[in-house]
Structure formats: C-alpha cells, structure tokens
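Q&A FORM
Asked by: J.P.
Topic: structure of Enoyl-CoA hydratase, mitochondrial

PROVIDED:
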Amino acid sequence: MDRVMEFAETVAMRSRRTAARLKDAVYRGIEKTLDEGLEIERAHIVEMLKSDDYKEGLTAFAERRQPVFD
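REPLIED BY: S.T.
REPLY: Here is the structure written out as tokens.
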C-alpha cells in the first residue's frame, strides 16, 4: 500500500493534463493488445510534447525550480 500511495503522490505532483492522460492510457489500454496499448501511449506523448505543461516542465528543470502547471 505504501508504494501505491508513493506513486499516487508522484502523479499528483505532475500536471493535471499529464495525470489525465496517464489514467486514460491505463483504462483504455488494459484490455488491448500490446501494440494497441503502445499506440494509445504514442498518441498521448505526441499530444503532450506540444503542450504548455511540457514547455513549463522543461523551463522549470533548466531553471532548477518547481514547475507551475495550469
């Protein structure tokens, strides 16, 4: 149970958009083939790489500060 809580806390620190995409990938991919699941993940990654949250995460990392997500 401690590992589950640790994972949940890690997800909660991320952007809401990223957490939502992670949850969607898990729910949609759970009964899919590996290739179908990977395609769901790929689509989410492509979408997230274009997001303001991604840019903020990179900027915050470069500036050695915590990101501030919308």
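FOLLOW-UP: The first helix runs from residue 2 to 12.
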